[in-house]
Design a protein that fits this description.
By secondary structure, the protein is an all-alpha fold. The protein has one domain. Strands 1-2 form a two-stranded antiparallel ribbon. InterPro entries: SCL35B1-4/HUT1.
């Protein structure tokens, strides 16, 4: 009230006096905090709710949630891998891996647009320049991965995709100057040796082995190692949604691939071939894209509810199952070297997960086991004496 009287006094009619009065007096700012539902964006209104394919998993118990998520991951991604290999088993389709990626990006863009229409907040939060970079990396990782199947067996491609840690560590050392502990180095060595052993086995037993496929999947692996960090940073910085990320990154990537195929004259032969086999190409590609889109939804739900550690364990088991089903459903040469090299890669994945969660996973040391055995021996001797 005193401040209001001072502001109405004649002395405050002059600008200098008014400035002096306000600078010498305290200012009190009143902030009204809106309710939680008003402050939050509509598509993130329920933070605790986990909705997958229109189903609210928060209503179920934890074991039921885990069963639903694991069932979704295995079901959709096993079908995804089966359809991907089935498309490339069509006679004459192997040179059209980039066209398959174009069709896949088109379907993903449509799915993302449909999902974006189901939420109230349709604004684009992430800048267009960021999406252009993400789209380029997405084209690299998915296009090169699909194209590599024209040169490699599907199990070899899956083994390579399991070893994302290697390019991540190499980039961390040379770009950011990071230092890794002995567990990370051991994980990278196990993965590298497993990859080399698996690739040598593939080159020995597969008559159509081509080094081009190894180069393509390695480049896809490098792009895949980068894109995760870029997407995570962009979504956290600008608070973007998953549906927005899918829509804009895949639609821009669709334009990239369409422009590249047009410039290299690779579009017309692919369209001509697929028009002769519409069910084996477009039909399978639709189901292939749909199952991949649904599968990633369950993976994200698994990460949100149970954490990355359990999600990595489940997805690793899914990839192992994909390799087994590939050998069962598609005729290809087999050797036990595939088994030992695959187990070596799995050991590297476990070491990587253990390194990131050393505070949660406490493995018993040799010294601890020896002390425990000595204590049990002493207690057994004491009981016998008594």
């Amino acid at each position: 009230e005193k401040q209001a009287e001072d502001s109405n006094s004649p002395e405050c009619s002059e600008p200098g006096a008014m400035d002096l009065k306000f600078t010498s007096s305290r200012k009190y700012i009143s902030i009204s905090v809106p309710s939680k539902s008003q402050a939050m964006s509509p598509h993130i209104k329920s933070v605790d709710d986990v909705v997958v394919l229109g189903m609210n998993l928060s209503k179920f118990s934890k074991p039921t949630q885990f069963f639903i998520c694991v069932s979704g991951v295995f079901m959709f991604y096993l079908i995804y891998g089966y359809l991907q290999e089935l498309i490339f088993s069509v006679e004459g389709f192997k040179p059209f891996g980039w066209y398959l990626t174009l069709v896949q990006f088109g379907f993903y863009s449509i799915f993302g647009l449909i999902e974006l229409q189901l939420i109230q907040d349709k604004r684009r939060r992430i800048p267009g320049k960021t999406y252009m970079i993400i789209a380029f990396l997405t084209v690299g990782t998915m296009g090169l991965s699909n194209t590599s199947l024209g040169y490699l067996n599907y199990p070899t491609q899956v083994i390579f995709k399991c070893c994302k840690l290697i390019p991540v560590m190499i980039g961390g050392v040379f770009i950011q100057g990071k230092r890794y502990n002995i567990v990370d180095v051991s994980a990278a060595l196990c993965m590298s040796l497993g990859l080399i052993w698996f690739t040598l086995a593939d080159s020995t037993v597969a008559p159509n082995f081509n080094l081009t496929g190894v180069i393509l999947i390695s480049l896809a692996l490098c792009a895949d190692a980068v894109i995760g960090n870029v997407q995570e940073k962009a979504m956290k910085l600008h608070n973007g949604s998953n549906s927005e990320m899918v829509l804009y990154s895949y639609s821009i990537g669709f334009v990239y691939i369409l422009f590249g195929l047009t410039c290299t004259s690779g579009l017309s032969p692919a369209v001509t071939f697929c028009s002769k086999h519409p069910v084996q190409t477009y039909g399978y590609a639709f189901l292939f894209s749909l199952t991949g889109y649904f599968g990633i939804s369950f993976v994200l739900a698994l990460i949100k509810i149970f954490g990355a550690l359990l999600a990595v364990t489940v997805t690793t088991g899914r990839k192992a199952m994909s390799i087994v089903l590939s050998f069962l459903f598609f005729a290809k040469p087999f050797t036990l070297q595939y088994v030992w090299s695959g187990l070596l890669v799995v050991l590297g994945i476990f070491l990587n997960v253990y390194s990131k969660n050393m505070d949660k996973i406490k493995l018993p040391s040799l010294l601890g086991l020896w002390k425990k055995s000595m204590e049990e021996r002493k207690s057994r001797t004491l009981s016998q004496t008594v």
